[in-house]
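Problem: given the chain below (111 residues), write out its structure.
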Amino acid sequence: LREFDSCMVHYAVSEKILYCEPRQLYCDEERKVLIFSRGNSIFAFNFNPTSSYGSFSFWAPDGEYRMAFNSDEPRFDGFGRLQDDERHLTIDHKLALYLPSRCVVVLKKLR
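Solution.
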């Protein structure tokens, strides 16, 4: 987990997101999902211990996003359920992601 923390801190500093106000995009206590944007990035957390969500759709600022990293990567002792460098486009002001259980996905806006 230390390597993930280090990666997250490095990303926050390099993208200068700590100077930007966080903006909640989605919150569902029952499903245990929290999604927010900060600067040019979206952070999607699935705290659910057992439920993964395929094609999880939520409102997001229009644009194209690239997965910067996710906590399910094998280098963070994850299961590798997501593909590196995935790209996502908003459709009708929404993004759709696969959100594995116990995982955070970090997306960087490209345009």
